[in-house]
TrEMBL record:
It is found in: Mitochondrion. One of its GO terms (molecular function) is oxidoreductase activity, acting on the CH-OH group of donors, NAD or NADP as acceptor. Pfam families: Iso_dh (PF00180). Residues 160-489 form the Isopropylmalate dehydrogenase-like domain. The keyword Mitochondrion applies. It comes from the Eukaryota. InterPro entries: IsoCit/isopropylmalate_DH_CS (IPR019818), Isocitrate_DH_NAD (IPR004434), IsoPropMal-DH-like_dom (IPR024084). Transmembrane segments: none annotated. Belongs to the isocitrate and isopropylmalate dehydrogenases family. Gene3D superfamilies: Isopropylmalate Dehydrogenase. NCBIfam families: mito_nad_idh. Keywords: Mitochondrion, Transit peptide, Tricarboxylic acid cycle. It comes from Steinernema carpocapsae (Entomopathogenic nematode). This is Isocitrate dehydrogenase [NAD] subunit, mitochondrial.
């Protein structure tokens, strides 16, 4: 009777435990500080000695979406009750990280620390570190694990994001996004900061914008700030765009070129490739001066550290998003030192990623290949000036600047903006601009903030409107206004 009573109590206790949660706090350290360098796949497998009854599902529990922006993060992994040994109050787990040469500091729920020296190199498999610790399984409410700066909010908890309308049609496009957020109930609240080099008397300062972004989850949605040729800002070689990138260290500009059903392209083939551009040095370093009257010297700066960082970002991006090939674009045949260094670093970095195909291509040949056979590209990585040109060329392949979104990524900050940076001054107030690029940038922002359902629904609504072809802006061959296209997206929005 006593044994039967214990058995019933044990079953009752196990039934009341809905889920067991393994919580770990992680802080990543890496010489190359960028988000994709700090991602990996986490496998948790049970120790055979400690809990032999844990089934195979617990042996290979995988947590993905480990794309971080640096600093402390919290990962929560939910384990079903049937995955836990009924006889053990705690179990030994082997934590297996597969990053790319990053150092870790991992803390379990018991505040036990694993220092980088506890990791050992495995010679038989490249780029793999191992660490073992003792973690405690705790009964808790059901949780879905994500690795983020904050926990996923519910509808009652709004996330604040900095909004920088910019110049030209930027305010109109940003306000289209605001209308969508308001009418769909997304938990987003904007703090507006007006930056402009054209209307400099009304513009806030760069420090105001940085303070706002820092307060608001280190995220901003931004229009295009037009560079001025006159006024107070013109006396400074560094424009507001460059100052933001430099001070926030937004080193990687990522533009996703993907064709839409409903927009006819000249090639007739679906395109899907990514352009990764280093944007904190190179020709746009604003290092120029007049040696003697009529003679201007403009310097191009290339440093090994920043080239390694952008090359590693491109390969990590390809790894995370299941891309097969990385193409390094350069002009090393002429600029043998500057672009020669870029090519050598990319070639050396490719050796660390044997599963990803690598090729190098001269910039002029790249332009020809983009026009003739753009489907051959997958991930392209290049210096600043080349990236600016290729971004706009590639946008023309899939419908123009109005349909391409982009993002500027740093180790701690992300700014979402149109991929082709045109202010479109001549369209101000005429309601003819295509808001697709800005809306898709907002969808990327929602995904970054872990509002994935909203992000997917918003992207799906835009794709549906374009595919139907009933509401087209002028750049796509129609007569719909900006507000009419926005209203159509709201009508198609489904969670």
């Amino acid at each position: 009777m006593a044994s039967r009573h214990c058995l019933l109590q044990r079953r009752k206790k196990r039934k009341s435990m809905k889920r067991f949660v393994l919580q770990m706090k992680m802080r990543f350290k890496s010489g190359a500080k960028h988000p994709s360098a700090l991602h990996g796949t986490l496998h948790i497998s049970s120790s055979d000695k400690a809990s032999p009854q844990i089934p195979e599902i617990a042996r290979r529990l995988t947590a993905t979406s480990l794309c971080l922006n640096g600093g402390p993060r919290c990962l929560t992994i939910a384990i079903a009750p049937e995955c836990r040994s009924p006889d053990a109050n705690q179990s030994d787990f082997s934590i297996d990280f597969v990053p790319d040469s990053a150092l870790f500091l991992v803390r379990s729920t018991g505040n036990q620390t694993i220092s980088p020296r506890d990791f050992r190199w495995n010679d038989w498999e490249q780029n793999r570190f191992f660490a073992c610790t003792r973690c405690v399984l705790q009964a808790s409410r059901p949780l879905v694990g994500r690795c983020s700066r904050h926990s996923s909010p519910d509808a009652s908890q709004k996330l604040k994001v900095t909004m920088i309308p910019g110049d030209g049609v930027g305010p109109e496009l940003i306000y289209s996004v605001q209308d969508i957020i308001k009418n769909t109930g997304m938990p987003i609240e904007f703090e507006e900061v007006f930056l402009s080099e054209v209307h400099y008397t009304r513009s806030a300062t760069i420090q105001d914008a940085i303070d706002s972004i820092t307060r608001n989850n280190h995220v901003a949605l931004k229009g295009v700030i037009q560079e001025a040729f006159h006024g107070p800002q013109s006396s400074e070689l560094h424009g507001m765009n460059m100052q933001l990138r430099r001070r926030l260290d937004l080193f990687a500009n990522v533009v996703h070129i993907k064709s839409f059903e409903g927009i006819k392209t000249r090639h007739g083939k679906p395109l899907d490739f990514v352009i990764v551009r280093e944007q904190t040095e190179g020709e746009y370093s604003s290092l120029e001066h007049e040696l003697v009257p009529g003679v201007i010297e403009c310097l191009k700066i290339s440093t090994r550290a920043k080239i390694e960082r952008i090359a590693k970002f491109a390969f990590d991006f390809a790894t995370k998003h299941n891309r097969k090939k990385v193409t390094a674009v350069h002009k090393a045949n002429i600029m043998k030192l500057g672009d020669g260094l870029f090519l050598r670093v990319c070639t050396d970095m490719a050796k660390l990623y044997p599963k990803i195909e690598f090729e190098q291509m001269i910039i002029d040949n790249t332009c020809m290949q983009l026009v003739s056979r753009p489907e051959q590209f997958d991930v392209m990585v290049m210096p600043n000036l080349y990236g600016n040109i290729i971004d706009n060329l590639a946008a023309g392949l899939i419908g123009g600047a109005g349909v391409v979104s982009g993002q500027s990524i740093g180790s701690d900050y992300v700014i979402f903006e149109p991929g082709s940076r045109h202010s479109f001054q001549e369209a101000i107030g005429r309601q003819i601009a295509n808001p697709t690029a800005m809306i898709l940038s907002a969808a990327n922002m929602l995904n970054h903030l872990h509002l994935d359902d909203y992000g997917r629904a918003l992207r799906s609504a835009v794709e549906t409107v374009i595919k139907d072809g009933k509401v087209k802006t002028r750049d796509l061959g129609g007569y719909a206004s900006t507000s009419e296209f926005t209203d159509a997206v709201i009508d198609k929005f489904r969670m």
